[in-house]
Specification:
- The chain is of the alpha/beta class.
- The chain has 3 domains: 19-164 and 241-330, Vaccinia Virus protein VP39 (Rossmann fold), CATH 3.40.50; 174-233, no CATH class; 335-419.
- The chain contains 11 helices and 22 strands.
- The chain has helices spanning 25-32, 73-91, 107-118, 207-215, 262-272, 288-295, 307-321, 334-338, 342-352, 387-399, 410-419, and strands at residues 19-22, 38-43, 51-57, 62-68, 92-102, 123-130, 149-156, 167-172, 175-178, 180-182, 201-203, 219-221, 228-232, 235-239, 243-248, 278-281, 299-304, 326-328, 356-357, 369-371, 375-379, 406-408.
- The strands form 6 sheets. Strands 15-6-7-5-2-16-17-1-18 form a 9-stranded mixed sheet, sandwiched between helices. The chain has a 4-stranded mixed sheet with strand order 19-20-21-22, with helices on both faces.
- A hairpin with a 6-residue loop joins strand 12 and strand 13.
- Helix 2 (73-91) runs parallel beside helix 3 (107-118).
- It binds S-adenosylmethionine.
- Residues 24-25, 44-46, 66, 256, 258-260, 283-286, 288, 303-306, 309 line the site of S-adenosylmethionine.
C-alpha cells in the first residue's frame, strides 16, 4: 500500500500513465505526481453521508465497502479533504481543471474549501446532475423532499482553461423584441424615435450604442405602434447549462457502492479535455472515470485506497478494453495486510486461495467461505491462535460433516505470500 509517514523523505518517482495506484491519494499524489502535470481531475470522494456503504459482488462472494462516517462531524471531514484538495490543485497544469462531485451533505463546506484552495475567481460552475428518483406506493408524511440532484463543483486552475460543452440543436429565427426594460437607470431615458421609455422603465442600451444599432438596422421603431424594438439574431443551437437532467449521475452496472455513470464522466472529460490529455481520478472506485477516459482516447491515472476496488477496476478494464492494467501499491507484506480493513483482508485471502468468500458471514465465529470444492475457511485478522478458538472451528467443521478446514490468521499470511 502506498502510505507515507508524515516525516518520510519523498523520493520523487515517475508517474505511470494508464495505471491504477492503490493507496491513500494524498500520499500517491505527493510521491508520484509532479507540479503542473495533470490536465483534468475528477474527484468523487465519500460525501459525508454518515453511512457505511456495502455491496456484494462477484456473485455475492466478495464484499466491497467503504466507510463514510466521521466521528468529529463536518469539521473532521473538511480537515480530511483539505490537504487532498491542495494536492489536486498542485498537480493540475495551469490550463487544467477539477470537477469535485459531492452532494447536499457537504457541498457548501467544500465550496468554501475549494474557494480557498483554487481562489474564488477560478470557480466556474456548480453543476446539478440528476439523482435517482424514488417512487412510493402509499402516501405518508415524510421529513423532507427527495433530493433531486448531486452537485459537481467545477474549478479551473487559472483563467486559461476552456471547455467545449456539447451544443443542443435548437433553431430560433431572428425576431424583434421590445427595447424597454423595467427599472430606472440614469442616462438611459433619452429620446428615441421621438419617445421616452414607459414610466418606471429604461432603454436597454446607451445612446451611442443605440445610434450605431439604428445605422446597422438592428434597432427600429415598430411599423405599427412606433415603439422602439431591437433585433435578436437567428440562433441554431442552445448552449448547455449547468443543470444536467438529461443524464443520470449514478449507474448500477458494476454493483459498486455510489458508482457513477459513464455518460456523466464522458460528458465532463469530453468537454474539459482534449485527445491524449491526462485525466486523473483520485477516488476512482470501480473506475468509471478511467473507462470514460479510455473510451475518449485520453491518458488516465486512477487512485483508490481499497485493494478490492483496484482489483475490480483492473478486471473491468480487461473485460471492456482487453488491456492488462498495471496496479501499483497492492498490499504485499504481512505488515500491510495487517493494516487492511477486515473485509479487505478477507477478500485478499480468498483471492489468493482462489476461493469463495461469503461476506454475509464476515465476523461470524464460524466459516467465512470455501476453497477447492468445499473446504471451509475461517479468516481472522489477528496474530494469536488460542485453543478455544481452534476448538470452536473444529466443531463447526465437524458439524458440516467435513474432516478438513483452513483457519487463516495473520501468522499464516507469510505462507500465503510465499506461495503467491
Ligand atoms: C464515492 S466512491 C467513488 C466511486 C467512483 N466514482 C465510481 O464511479 O466507481 C469513493 C471511493 O474513494 C475511495 N477512497 C476513500 N478514501 C480514499 C483515500 N484517502 N485515497 C484514495 N481513495 C479513497 C473509496 O475506497 C471509494 O472507492
Amino acid at each position: 500500500m502506498i502510505n507515507l509517514a508524515e516525516s518520510e523523505a519523498i523520493p520523487p518517482k515517475a508517474l505511470d500513465h494508464n495505471t491504477i495506484y492503490c493507496g491513500n491519494n494524498e500520499d500517491v499524489l505527493r510521491r508520484y505526481v509532479s507540479n503542473d502535470s495533470v490536465d483534468l481531475l475528477y474527484a468523487d470522494p465519500p460525501f459525508f453521508s454518515n453511512q457505511q456503504y456495502e455491496a456484494l459482488w462477484k456473485d455475492g462472494y466478495e464484499l466491497r465497502a467503504f466507510e463514510d462516517r466521521w466521528k468529529g462531524g463536518i469539521q473532521s471531514y473538511v480537515a480530511w479533504m483539505e490537504p487532498k484538495l491542495r494536492e489536486c490543485q498542485r498537480v493540475l497544469k495551469p490550463d487544467g481543471a477539477m470537477y469535485l462531485h459531492c452532494d447536499w451533505h457537504a457541498v457548501h463546506y467544500l465550496k468554501i474549501e475549494m474557494d480557498k484552495v483554487f481562489g474564488e475567481s477560478n470557480f466556474r460552475n456548480e453543476i446539478s446532475v440528476k439523482r435517482i428518483r424514488k417512487n412510493v406506493n402509499e402516501y405518508k408524511t415524510v421529513k423532507r423532499l427527495n433530493v433531486a440532484f448531486d452537485s459537481i463543483l467545477f474549478y479551473a486552475k487559472t483563467d486559461l482553461h476552456r471547455i467545449t460543452p456539447p451544443l443542443r440543436e435548437k433553431h430560433r429565427p431572428a425576431r424583434w423584441h421590445a427595447f424597454d426594460a423595467n427599472g430606472l437607470r440614469t442616462g438611459m431615458d433619452y429620446d428615441l424615435f421621438g419617445r421616452k421609455p414607459p414610466a418606471g422603465g429604461h432603454w436597454r442600451w446607451t445612446k451611442e450604442r443605440s445610434q450605431q444599432a439604428i445605422e446597422e438596422k438592428r434597432l427600429r421603431a415598430n411599423p405599427l405602434t412606433g415603439s422602439p424594438e431591437y433585433l435578436i439574431p437567428e440562433s441554431t443551437h442552445e448552449l448547455m447549462t449547468s443543470f444536467w437532467d438529461d443524464i443520470p449521475a449514478y449507474s448500477f452496472k458494476m454493483g459498486y457502492p455510489t458508482e457513477k455513470s459513464v455518460e456523466l464522466l464522458k460528458r465532463i472529460i469530453g468537454m474539459s479535455s482534449k485527445s491524449s490529455d491526462l485525466v486523473l481520478d483520485p477516488f476512482c472506485g470501480c473506475g468509471t472515470a478511467l473507462v470514460a477516459a479510455q473510451t475518449l482516447g485520453r491518458s488516465w491515472v486512477g487512485i483508490d485506497i481499497s485493494p478490492t476496488a483496484c482489483r475490480l477496476m483492473k478486471d473491468r478494464l480487461r473485460k471492456e478494453f482487453k488491456i492488462d492494467t498495471k496496479v501499483i501499491g497492492m498490499p504485499r507484506t504481512a505488515e500491510e495486510l495487517k493494516a487492511l480493513q477486515p473485509f479487505e483482508f478477507q477478500n485478499w485471502v480468498f483471492e489468493k486461495l482462489h476461493g469463495r468468500a461469503n461476506p454475509k458471514l464476515l465476523g461470524d465465529p464460524g466459516i467465512d467461505g470455501f476453497v477447492e470444492l468445499d473446504v471451509p475457511v475461517r479468516v481472522k485478522q489477528v496474530d494469536a491462535v488460542d485453543q478455544a478458538d481452534v476448538a470452536s472451528f473444529d466443531k463447526e467443521v465437524s458439524r458440516l460433516r467435513l474432516d478438513l478446514g483452513l483457519d487463516i490468521r495473520l501468522v499464516t499470511v507469510d505462507a500465503i505470500l510465499g506461495t503467491s
